[in-house]
Write a structure and sequence with these properties.
This protein is mostly beta strands. The chain contains 1 helix and 12 strands, in the order ββββαββββββββ.
Length: 221
């Protein structure tokens, strides 16, 4: 049985529909759609989508040329200031390649991440691996989409970028420029901080997709 969760906004509510593919040996696959959740979020234009992954290995090379940021994060903290919302977890992480710091809100009702898990996180301006523009609406046939390679996909907007020079110096003697990028995914927030050169293609007010999948799961229960 396969599952597909999609959402849309109506006033101050987010409706979540679950599409289930049910295998029938005599008639082949059939589909049914039912409203499975009703969540209340701020009435923002952005939203989130979740798909269970269909890994497309041949697309991964193409995807690399179209992303805005790509790294693996170790989750070092979970809800550091206590859990404020029943269906939201706040993750704190540190990236293994670029040494970026991450604070990220996720919908914990449909996607769970624990402390010490490792996640691959990519930011892109389009859900398509060939770089074509976002169609601005959900399409069922998105076999070439980047989201086929990931487990949790959110869509939002960059609403703030802060910059400040680093106190340290790089190898050439000049100071590295540090930035903090803030993104809202329908009220779920992300803060990505670190060296500006690793996120130089991300601009203010730009729409953005965030793709996440687990690469390592902690053994704690």
């Amino acid at each position: 049985m396969g599952h597909l969760l999609i959402t849309f906004h109506c006033h101050s509510y987010t409706f979540v529909f679950q599409r289930r593919a049910i295998l029938d040996r005599s008639d082949g696959p059939r589909f049914e759609t039912r409203r499975s959740h009703l969540l209340r979020y701020p009435p923002l234009e952005a939203g989130w989508k979740v798909r269970y992954p269909r890994i497309s290995q041949h697309l991964q090379g193409k995807a690399m040329s179209h992303n805005l940021f790509d790294d693996t994060f170790v989750i070092t903290g979970l809800n550091p200031h206590k859990k404020r919302f029943a269906r939201v977890d706040r993750l704190v992480g540190r990236s293994t390649l670029f040494e970026m710091d991450l604070i990220l809100d996720i919908n914990s009702e449909i996607y769970q991440v624990r402390q010490d898990d490792e996640i691959a996180l990519m930011l892109a301006h389009t859900p398509y691996s060939d770089g074509k523009l976002d169609p601005k609406e959900y399409q069922h046939d998105m076999s070439s989409a980047l989201m086929d390679q990931y487990e949790y996909v959110t869509y939002g907007k960059v609403f703030k970028i802060e910059s400040a020079p680093s106190a340290g110096a790089n190898v050439g003697g000049s100071k590295e420029s540090k930035v903090a990028i803030m993104i809202s995914f329908g009220g779920l927030l992300m803060k990505l901080s670190g060296d500006q050169k690793h996120v130089a293609r991300i601009s203010i007010d730009s729409p953005i997709y965030c793709f996440i999948r687990k690469t390592k799961t902690s053994r704690t229960t």
